Amino acid sequence: MTKRAKEDELTAERRTPEAVPAPAGPPPELARVLAAQRGAGNAMVSRALIKQRTGVRQIHGDWIGDIVNKAKKSAGMPYVATIGSEKVQVVSAAEEAEAARIIKDIQDKYGIEVSTSKGVQAVKDHYDKAPEDVRKKVKGATWLFAELVALERALAHFAPILGSRRSTSERIGAEQEITSASKVDQSITKNTATGALDDATLGEFFRDSKNFALFTPGETSDIDFPGDVPKQLEATTVHEIAHGLMKYAEGDFMKETGYWTDRATKSGTAGAEAPPTSYGDKNASEDLSESTMFFFVSPDRLKNGDGSAAAGTPGNPCPKRYAFLEKIVGKWKLPVGDFPTPNKDTAYA
Amino acid sequence: MLDQAYALRGLSRDEVLSRAPDAVVEDGVRYERLRPVARVRAASLWPGFFYFDGDRQVMLYAGAPEDVDPDALAAALGPGAHELRSRAGKRAVLYVWPERGVAFSEEDGAVDFLEVFAPTTLADYSERIYEDPGQFIR
User: Which residues contact B94 (CB under 8 A, 6 or more apart)?
Assistant: First the structure.
């Protein structure tokens, strides 16, 4: 091919309308701003916008974002879809539709709103002693489609005590402990004047806000399931949910396992079954969340241990924890037709 | 509660057992790095546990003590608290006054646990009693 022919071909490729469609024009609101800018100049328009309290940055950002995302969508590249108040990274229109279904179903079936702004607020509220400039930097993040799938799978494990089904469960009468789930970029390292943005936290539960958040560092973590990020996402999400929904069982959990004297202190009793992981060795709450995580996501790992830990050390087989959770979860659903069994005197028709 | 704890801090195992005939003793247990120790629950004396190394009291502990305001506790202990990572949770902070022999963990305005021990240095507390729980990531 001659150099000229090659250039012609490249030019033709660049012109091919099917490859990347011409971007749609700006939305009417922005078109008016741009027209005014051409006629009256930047300063005049800026003053007018400030007067109108119009979010210049928001309009501009949304417009550019929309154009870029439409182009990416047309090119079959991953793009960011806006679904209600949430941003979700997807690869196709079908995936976008599925993400929308998941968000709606989670609200309808489980009474849990997918709301990133609530998570951002929860972080700020719960780290009230962290420096103000750090708290201000806490921001929402775009959901990965895989995270929404994991969220739905994780919540399904707790379905009998969520949403409308809770009113026919053993947990009737107790308020649902979680009502929103969020994707936040980063948490804060600690609730003191030296708190900083957190590069390590994967997820966090905020009791007072009835919220849990997944954080950007969790997008690639496979800490418990090497090479299986989707399973890890589900596991991390189950862990956070358990901090809320399983809290009521913490007292009985400590009694039955014998490893803790109270929420923060190990009994030190010889022969007591240890938590399934070292992480669960921090306190009884983490132990219960770790145990619940494996109970639902990898039950054999809970029953049989990590294969190397000695009895009484973290990672050991946890048959007591497995049996405890089996019993607790088994009690969630009230028996159908919860009526007393007729005795002989009243059993005749 | 702090005054009550100070009054009990010096008691030996025999003294506790003689004052609290209902006490329950478990030998060969641990409290963080303190091990092996004996744990004594004497509910009529203290709403928590005494830990003894032989006859010598090494820790007076109360988990989630009721009606204890962390700000009031900190004010009573005065300046000079050291902050350590608390095993109670990511947002919890362990405040230690080693020279006064007191530490407590606080989270969201509540005391997770209170420790009272013989006055010492931060280095000794960190080496002999405190166990770093490691980073909380979820």
Answer: B83, B84, B85, B86, B87, B88, B103, B104, B105, B130
